[in-house]
Design goal:
The complex is a heterodimer. By secondary structure, chain A is α+β, with helices and mostly antiparallel strands. Chain A contains 5 helices and 5 strands. Chain A has helices at residues 2-26, 43-48, 63-71, 102-105, 142-145; strands at residues 32-42, 76-80, 85-91, 110-120, 123-134. In chain A, a hairpin with a 4-residue loop joins strand 2 and strand 3 (85-91). The N and C termini of chain A lie far apart (94 Å). By secondary structure, chain B is an alpha+beta fold. Chain B has 7 helices and 6 strands. In chain B, a hairpin with a 6-residue loop joins strand 5 (128-136) and strand 6. The longest helix of chain B has 20 residues, at 2-21. Chain B is globular, with a radius of gyration of 23 Å. The chains are: A alpha+beta, B alpha+beta. Chains A and B meet through helix 1, helix 2, helix 3, strand 3 and strand 5 of A and helix 1, helix 2, strand 3, helix 6 and helix 7 of B.
Chain lengths: 157, 197
């Protein structure tokens, strides 16, 4: 009887773990409050390498291209100080593709954002409620790379 | 009663063991049947699959405006085979264009897509998707994802003129006028120009 009770207890524990597993997985889409600092990036060029490595597809070198991609509707992201990339889904109450200036004004800037963090299927998403601080463009890598791509700065006629 | 508990316990043990014993899922291959154009990008893999077009924020939060945000929100795909939410970053055009204008007509509809999965940045465990072709699920004819520039022209009639859209876009022009091509002020642009003369 004692043995049966132990077995039943173990089984109940396993059942609880098994049943709770899908609930835990679903909970990954529940948002968590977050305050995070990082550089606003053009996720397409940064992740694809189409214009070069990550060191060249960020900062001042890539600023104009980042403006083009943001205006072009390519998802804008944040590369946090620990290297994690967040896809920004909303900023200061605005939808990312609204014709607002905010998303343009912060391209390549290092900002501190307060908002909500979602995770699903290996992607980190950020809903920015407030830009707490803006340090501006701190990575002046145009001194090393020039404009990326080179035609970002047109020839002066 | 005891017999019932024992059976329940047996099922639970089996379920528990199967949970712990599940091997890690191998990296899925969606390349079979793909006719996507390869571009030699980082972590690139051809990928054709079926799924549903979704408003990403709606999918995550339950905040769901009509018609997937009507072009104001980022859209993605929930893939049929694994229920994964895939970020669609790019359409097939080569002018810095996203994919929202190409996905929006299919909002909440079942589709087939063909394109490229790419990326292997340590800070981004999942790949993003470049959709090159789309069709309603099971239809014969594919559409190339190249709606963006025409949609932009319609949204920006005042920007009509020669040259690519990104040289004429009012928001881009306004920002460059304000802070220069490197975002550091026009004096930095000028200094760089003189250094390279």
């Amino acid at each position: 009887m004692q043995r049966n009770r132990r077995f039943t207890g173990l089984a109940a524990l396993l059942l609880a773990i098994t049943v709770s597993a899908p609930i835990a997985a679903a909970a990954t889409t529940k948002p968590k409050p977050i305050e995070i600092k990082g550089e606003i990036i053009d996720t397409w060029c940064y992740l694809s390498g189409v214009m070069g490595g990550p060191e060249a597809t960020s900062g001042s070198a890539h600023h104009t291209c980042a403006l083009w991609c943001a205006a072009g509707g390519i998802p804008v992201g944040m590369r946090a100080e620990d290297g994690t990339v967040y896809m920004i889904l909303k900023i200061k109450g605005e939808e990312p593709l609204e014709k607002s200036d905010t998303i343009m004004e912060i391209q390549s800037n290092v900002i501190t954002a307060r908002g909500h963090h979602y995770v699903r299927d290996g992607v980190n998403y950020l809903v920015v409620d407030k830009v707490v601080a803006n340090d501006g463009i701190t990575n002046h890598n145009h001194n090393d790379y020039g404009p990326v791509p080179p035609f970002a700065v047109p020839e002066k006629k | 009663m005891m017999n019932h508990i024992s059976k329940l316990a047996g099922v639970a043990v089996l379920a528990g063991l199967s949970t712990f014993a599940a091997p890690p899922a191998p990296a899925a291959d969606f390349s079979k049947g793909s006719n996507a154009t390869e571009l030699g990008l980082i972590g690139e893999a051809k990928a054709t699959f079926s799924g549903k077009v979704v408003d990403i924020l709606c999918e995550l939060s339950g905040n769901c405006p009509a018609n997937c945000g009507d072009g104001k929100r980022q859209l993605g795909l929930v893939r049929d085979t694994d229920n994964a939410l895939v970020v669609v970053s790019k359409n097939a055009q080569f002018e810095f264009n996203g994919a929202v204008d190409d996905l929006l007509p299919y909002c909440n509809k079942a589709v087939d897509v063909d394109g490229l999965l790419l990326g292997d940045d340590p800070g981004m465990p999942a790949k993003v998707y470049m959709a090159q072709f789309i069709r309603l699920k099971g239809e014969a004819k594919w559409s190339k994802t190249e709606r963006w520039t025409k949609a932009w022209a319609k949204r920006n009639p005042e920007a009509k003129g020669e040259g690519p859209w990104f040289r004429r876009d009012p928001r881009v022009k306004k920002q460059i006028e304000k802070s220069g091509y490197f975002g550091l002020g026009k004096e930095v642009d000028e200094k760089r120009r003189k250094e390279n003369q």
